[in-house]
Fold:
Amino acid sequence: MSYLSLSLWLPMVFGVFLLACGRSMGARTVRWFSLLAAVVAFAVTIPIYTGFDASSAAMQFEENIPWVTRFHMNYHLGVDGISLWFVLLTAFINIIAIASAWEVIEDRFHQYAAAFMLLSGLMIGVFTALDGVLFYLFFEATLIPMYLIIGIWGGQNRIYAAFKFFLYTLAGSLLMLLAMLFLFFQSGFSFNILDWQQLVIPLGVQKVLFFAFLAAFAVKIPMWPVHTWLPDAHVQAPTAGSVVLAAIMLKLGAYGLLRFSLPILPDASRDLAGMMVALSLIAVVYVGLVAIVQKDMKKLVAYSSVAHMGFVTLGFFIFNKLGMAGGIVQMIAHGFVSAGMFLCIGVLYDRLHSRDIADYGGAIHAMPKFAAFALLFAMANCGLPATAGFVGEWMVILGAVKYEFWIGVVAATALIWGAAYSLWLYKRVYLGPVSNPKVKTMSDINAREMLILATLALATIFMGVYPKFFTQPMEPAVKQLIEQVGQGKTVAAPAANAGLHP
Structure:
């Protein structure tokens, strides 16, 4: 068994063990076992990075074993420079999620931790699957643990939010399954995603398939206007659920665009790029403005996530190396920053049991150490230079200016809206006089909370100061993907390529 299989199955084995034996273990033992299991699951992903050849665009650590031979399904895994970081990020965020619930979740902690362990393994499966059926199974199976996390440990309206999350994402995925079946027959009975990338498909058919995949991926990202499930899910989810949802699950849809839509359907991707750019800019500007008027802290950060993911899709569909790499970097950076933002909200909620901005004010007087971390994540959320939030957005803006100047200008306004909602949130919650007497009674962060926030803060600063660490391994894969999209596959490619800037 290779490191890829270990990184995928080990957390799920731990999750099943917790479900089977967690009830008979002591409460403290369950917590320590869950945390150590998450650390071990992360440790087995490290050799994937250390053994990765950053000069190659090929799939590495590949495993290809016959699975269901009658239907030509294989257990086929592999990583390239695009998927590498998402494997490590998923395992890393899983540690943060379980550690953040250490003193918070008292009811059935073993089931709670098991859900996150299973979810972590399934999401790594999405990022490593090179067989269409395997990808689909992992992609859909991620819904089940998150549905349970929201529906069991969520807020007052958790059942409504869980159903909305489940139905939205499931409905779009059915069209993706039909598209995969078409590609299966078109490729001579192969579910190999790399084989699908070699198919020559007419432009009209490519467009139909593009919308079929978009139905699944746009909801998961989520893109405007199919983003309305996300604020409800975030508001009702427990803190760790919001952390994983924002940091990893939103990336599944964007990763699907990189693995399916762009390389398999390059002509349709170019032909429909105008639509995708327009939808991305609406998410960046309009949803950013919507975030400003939110009264609930979680809703504000949820809408800001939609705006930040708009940068990701914008970077993908301007078809230059800077924009594409910037979109991927933005995905990784958003994983660190959004996790920090939701953890900060969770710390406040644990003390005052309210997410309403109006219930706070002057929190810095009671929690000065915590307020420093909250300021860092707020600044990173609005794209402060030398933080992770700046790198991806700046790369996408530069790529957009190279593609079309005015698109870059509109995208750059996101820095203004991001500063508006992030800093206004900080001002109303942490600065000024104490308006609520209960705020004075709040205790500053303890050692566990400080360690979690400090870890994310260091990752945020490190990525902002030394982004080459993250960008170098992905360069060959990004270059190859740009070439695949640029070459096209049909006779209609030159016409579809007319608006593509060199």
